[in-house]
């Protein structure tokens, strides 16, 4: 039985910071002990002195090989999960898409075909419900049996993913009986389409107008609406990529009422702003995503929401499109710019920078990036912590290393960095996925197909 000993580091989980050694046998953590108190031997010894030993990150919101806007996100499951590993993320939960007029299972099978045998790290799936009807509602139960326990619906993108209030209510009612978690993209897409049409008619065509028409109040309105629909249905709701302080206020109010309402935000809303969308010469197109970037003053509210636990998770909504050949489809018409940004590689490092900057504590870093998404999506304690019985998804992290983010050095399959030139303190040194080295000594030593599909249980916050 292969044994790995990680010695001398500071083990940080969501609940503890301990100077302990970690013993791994095969794919699992089997013991933690104070250095010098044990006589463990191992086939491999990793010296973590002066380093953090943390759980592998769990990114609960990615879009690999996703068709959108006449093109497809540029990271494959192979390139995207390899980039995730470089950044210390060892599990992703991607979104399978029900084809319009097709079944949920048909969509899930398609995404299994894409991911099977190609992933560098472990993966699970959510299901985007494009067509809510009697048949698809019944199929939700079957998907839960297959380990797909969360279902995403949209109040945005009419004609593509949009569901009306009645469809959303019915899906929430079904989730209230089968234990599934409904995830909502909350923006008023019907009103936004009117504002897009009016802006284009006025000649407002640059990328910055993408943020101006997708108003914060329309995110707040839709957030309020889906919360109240979930209350009527008697089911929980998880609001994805919260970007606006007004939308966060709706979540906070509902949680103060004791409702099972949850929310995530993403690094782009914590570190970028409408100033980026307004960059000249069409450079702002690099930052077009939905929900959109907001004015910088929204960032303080989001950080506060993370500290107060009114936001529980930071995911990436990783959905990259190359600047040349994809984003430039929208030159002269911002509404044709593919919505999405790259980020799966940098989430853990950016959030460590937030620790350095005093926004969050070290344990909160691990909570929002590892433990909370694992609990939210039925993966804990197999994922998201370092404890006996957990998968040995472990990162040795150098908290003093310096790095500069750049498209020249990142590993995502996209031709720009949303954080070009940004200096960060902290860097991944070693990554184990189920006990197997994936990143070692600043080199990728993993391989496509190591990553395994992980069936998920029900949300553990309920």
What does this structure look like?
The protein has 462 residues and is an alpha/beta fold. It is 31% helix and 23% strand. β13, α4 and β14 form a beta-alpha-beta unit.
Keywords:
462 residues; alpha/beta; eight-stranded parallel sheet; 13 helices; globular
Mean pLDDT over the full residue set:
97
Which sheet architecture does the biggest sheet show?
8 strands, parallel
The general outline is globular
Q: Please work out how many helical segments DSSP would assign.
A: 13
Class per helix and strand makeup: alpha/beta
| Beginning-to-end CA distance, first to last residue | 38 Å
Approximate strand percentage:
15-25%
**Residues in helix, %:** 25-40%
Low-confidence stretches: none
Tally the beta strands.
21
**Rg from C-alpha positions?**
21 Å
Which strand order does the major sheet show? 8-11-12-13-14-15-16-17
Summarize the structure.
By secondary structure, this protein is of the alpha/beta class. Helices cover 31% and strands 23% of the residues.
Spell out the blueprint of helices and strands.
Layout: E1 3-7, E2 10-12, E3 17-19, E4 21-25, E5 28-33, E6 44-47, E7 52-55, E8 57-62, E9 67-68, E10 71-72, H1 77-86, E11 89-97, H2 104-115, E12 122-128, H3 134-145, E13 150-154, H4 165-178, E14 181-185, H5 189-201, H6 208-213, H7 216-233, E15 237-239, H8 245-256, E16 261-265, H9 267-271, H10 274-277, H11 298-308, E17 313-314, H12 347-356, H13 362-376, E18 394-404, E19 423-433, E20 436-440, E21 443-444
Parallel strand pairs: 1-6, 2-7, 8-11, 11-12, 12-13, 13-14, 14-15, 15-16, 16-17
Antiparallel strand pairs: 1-4, 2-3, 4-5, 7-18, 9-10, 18-19, 19-20, 20-21
């Amino acid at each position: 039985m292969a044994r790995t000993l990680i010695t001398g580091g500071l083990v940080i989980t969501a609940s503890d910071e301990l100077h302990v050694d970690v013993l791994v046998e095969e794919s699992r953590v089997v013991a933690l002990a104070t250095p010098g108190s044990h006589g463990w031997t191992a086939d491999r010894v990793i010296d973590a002195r002066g380093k953090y030993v943390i759980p592998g990150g769990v990114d609960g919101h990615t879009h690999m090989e996703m068709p959108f806007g006449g093109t497809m996100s540029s990271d494959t499951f192979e390139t995207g999960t390899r980039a995730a590993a470089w950044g210390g993320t060892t599990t992703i939960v991607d979104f399978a898409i029900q084809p319009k007029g097709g079944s949920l299972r048909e969509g899930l099978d398609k995404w299994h075909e894409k991911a099977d045998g190609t992933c560098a790290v472990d993966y699970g799936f959510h299901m985007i419900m494009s067509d809510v009807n009697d048949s698809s509602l019944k199929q939700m139960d079957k998907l839960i049996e297959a380990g797909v326990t969360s279902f995403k619906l949209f109040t945005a993108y009419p004609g593509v993913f949009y569901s009306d209030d009645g469809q959303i209510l019915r899906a929430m009612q079904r989730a209230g009986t089968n234990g599934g978690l409904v995830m909502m993209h909350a923006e008023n897409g019907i009103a936004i389409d009117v504002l897009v049409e009016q802006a284009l008619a006025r000649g407002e065509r640059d990328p910055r107008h993408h943020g101006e028409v997708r108003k914060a109040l329309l995110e707040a309105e839709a957030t309020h609406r889906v919360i109240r629909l979930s209350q009527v249905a008697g089911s929980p709701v998880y609001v994805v990529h919260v970007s606006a302080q007004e939308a966060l206020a709706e979540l906070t109010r509902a949680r103060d009422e004791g409702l099972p309402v949850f929310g995530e935000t993403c690094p782009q809303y914590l570190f970028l702003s409408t100033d980026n969308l307004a960059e000249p010469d069409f450079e702002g197109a690099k930052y077009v995503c939905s929900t959109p970037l907001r004015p910088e003053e929204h960032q303080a509210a989001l950080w506060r929401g993370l500290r107060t636990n009114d936001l529980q998770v930071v995911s990436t909504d990783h959905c990259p499109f190359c600047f040349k050949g994809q984003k430039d489809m929208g030159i002269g018409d911002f509404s044709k710019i593919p919505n999405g940004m790259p980020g799966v590689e940098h989430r853990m490092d950016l959030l460590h920078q937030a620790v350095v900057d005093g926004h969050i504590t070290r344990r909160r870093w691990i909570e929002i990036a590892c433990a909370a998404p694992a609990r939210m999506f039925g993966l804990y304690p197999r994922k998201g912590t370092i404890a006996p019985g957990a998968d040995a998804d472990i990162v040795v992290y150098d908290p003093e290393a310096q790095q500069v983010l750049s498209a020249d050095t990142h590993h995502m399959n996209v031709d720009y960095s949303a954080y070009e030139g940004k200096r960060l303190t902290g860097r991944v040194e070693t990554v184990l996925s189920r006990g197997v080295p994936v990143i070692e000594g600043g080199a990728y030593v993993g391989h496509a197909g190591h990553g395994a599909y992980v069936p998920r249980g029900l949300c553990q916050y309920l």
